[in-house]
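TL;DR need structure tokens for one chain.
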Amino acid sequence: MLDRDLGRHTPYMSQPEYRIYQLNKRLQNWTEECDNLWWDSFTAEFFEDDAILTVACCLEDGPKRYTIGRTLIPRYFRSIFDGGATDLYFNLKHSKESFHGNLVILDCDLCSMVTLHSKPIFTKVCTEGRLYLEFTFDDLMRIKNWHFNIRQNRELLSRSILATHAQDPPMLEQLSNSITRSGLSNFTLNYLRLCVILEPMQELMSRHKTYNLSPRDCLKTCLFQKWQRMVAPPAEPVRPPTAKRRKRKQSGGNVATVGASSTSSGASKRKSSPATGFSLSTQILHAMHHS
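>> reply
TL;DR here they are.
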């Protein structure tokens, strides 16, 4: 779409729901042969480089909240299929759109995440909740913040399957067991729990890969940098330079006094200079090197 006044490409104004439609369509292309590169490409198309994904649900032991960064998002979507799903899509009803700065916000209180499972028997899982999305207001229209708050879920079976096993009590007992917990498979929940441990270690793993340091040295370096940020004094505001005053000529005695005082102050500065060149950070680096 071209802006007639500016003569340049402008972003669409009402694209969030269409982007979810495109996301669903891309997920329909999934096959068992899709590897990590396919999931990385999928995530790069729909998520910003600094995107955050949050899933909140209530399990048997209480409410849970899992937040992961951009590098772990591809494996999250892949875990849904690795957990037994053969299809995944999102249904939005009565969603609301708004603008906040350079973000387009989509808030849907009636969102349903639908997954289809073929094992152990064909099951349709509808996970309902509130989906809150923040899109960047540009040509790519990618997601910066994904927050899905799960309220309830339903697992639907075909009537014909129940009729077929009506005279088989053990099979009926097996069919009565849920295959998900709060709409998420055990595979996905275990991955999210693992992400809680892995997310703080991303900085260590990145430093190890970049500088080829040992895990011990990576930890020392990260802790030292965090300590530096904690003890660093706040930046002082820049003060405008003061205008220099012209000095009046003094008598001979006063000049001698000023010269003596300046000489003594210079000597005191020279005496104190070695202490200023030996900072606390130098001591810590020296201790870390010998430890």
